[in-house]
Amino acid sequence: MITILNRQRKHPVRIRAFERLLGDLARTYRLADPEVSLAFVGERAIRTLNRKFLKKDKPTDVLSFPLGEKGPDGKYYLGDIVVAVPVAARQARDKGHRLDRELRLLAIHGFLHLLGYDHFAGIEEEERKAHRRHLA
What we know:
Layout: E1 2-6, H1 15-28, E2 35-41, H2 43-54, E3 62-70, E4 76-84, H3 85-95, H4 99-114, H5 123-134
Helix pairs in contact: 1-4, 3-4, 4-5
């Protein structure tokens, strides 16, 4: 099951589009109906999470919390992705593209982290592939 939460109010988020994106990613990586959540939050919330879990007292654009295990109910729990919409909005403006595109880029990035990709083990190449498939 894919769960999308919008915990910020300043920027509109197309919930159904992100349900489709995560569903497409799950199919691409051959995950049969994983439990995954994507939360859109404000800067204060992401800073709190970043401080608590990564010991970095500053806002960031995306955090991933992988589980990657089967629960007692038999479901596969992939994990949670948290995206800071205000940070994404600034990045989109700086890069010269729309907020929706930046949010999709960050959702893909977070999803790949849930799968175990990191910045030292090929996430960049995998992102390029995912961007070609899911952002065209």
